Amino acid sequence: MEVQLSKRLISVNEYHVMAEAGILTSEDKVELIQGEILEMSPIGTKHAAIVDKLTNLLVKIVSNTAIIRVQNPVYINDLNEPEPDISVLKPRRDYYADIHPGGDDTLLVIEVSDTTYHYDKEVKVPLYGSAGIPEYWILKLDSKEIEVHTVPAKGGYKKIELFYPEDLVNLSFCQKEILVSDLIG
């Protein structure tokens, strides 16, 4: 008789306990997806530069109307706490000091995709959409396009638009537009 093995999934709480105990450190580039601790891809120089550029641009645009977070956790549910490249959050006085922001706190999530497009599309779209995050962008570095997902729904988003370098993309949470080439160029 063949024995069937099952996985032991990790909860967000257990994940945090592992970090507090020193089992996971800041040197570990990991995130919790579907109850599994996954290693994140190394960040290349172009990827890092785009994240820095976006961060500076978004901080100027949103001023004091939102919080910009870089590569920090967003709580989705008990088995999922991804660390998107950038998240734009509703303002809070404590800057989420006591709890990681969740879907209701998040206005926009951005992933910069050079080698991770399939993962960002197939794994992260359902997570962010199911959490009710209003908008999710995938910045496709190779093609210099932005894939914008809106109208969250269980399992993903109902609307997907593709923006090219000469297009203006709308930051719906603050009613401002940005030229795509200014973001990825």
Task: List strands and helices in order, with pairings.
Layout: H1 12-20, E1 30-33, E2 36-39, H2 45-62, E3 67-70, E4 86-89, E5 106-113, H3 117-130, E6 135-140, E7 145-153, E8 156-163, E9 168-171, E10 176-179, H4 180-184
Parallel strand pairs: 5-6
Antiparallel strand pairs: 1-2, 3-4, 4-5, 6-7, 7-8, 9-10
β-sheet strand percentage:
25-35%
Secondary-structure-derived class: alpha+beta
Helix content: 10-25%
How large is the radius of gyration?
17 Å
* C-alpha geometry: globular
Nearest-integer average pLDDT: 93
Strand numbers in spatial order across the main sheet: 3-4-5-6-7-8
Uncertain stretches of 5 or more adjacent residues: none
Q: Would you report the number of β strands?
A: 10
Number of helices: 4
How far from one another are the termini?
59 Å
The major beta sheet can be summarized as: 6 strands, mixed
SSE order: HEEHEEEHEEEEEH
Q: What do these coordinates show?
A:
- With 185 residues, the protein is α+β, with helices and mostly antiparallel strands.
- Helix content is 25%, strand content 30%.
- The protein has 4 helices and 10 strands.
- The strands form 3 sheets. The chain has a 6-stranded mixed sheet with strand order 3-4-5-6-7-8. Strands 1-2 form a two-stranded antiparallel ribbon.
- The longest helix has 18 residues, at 45-62.
- It is globular and about 60 Å long.
- The N and C termini lie far apart (59 Å).
- The relative contact order is 0.12.
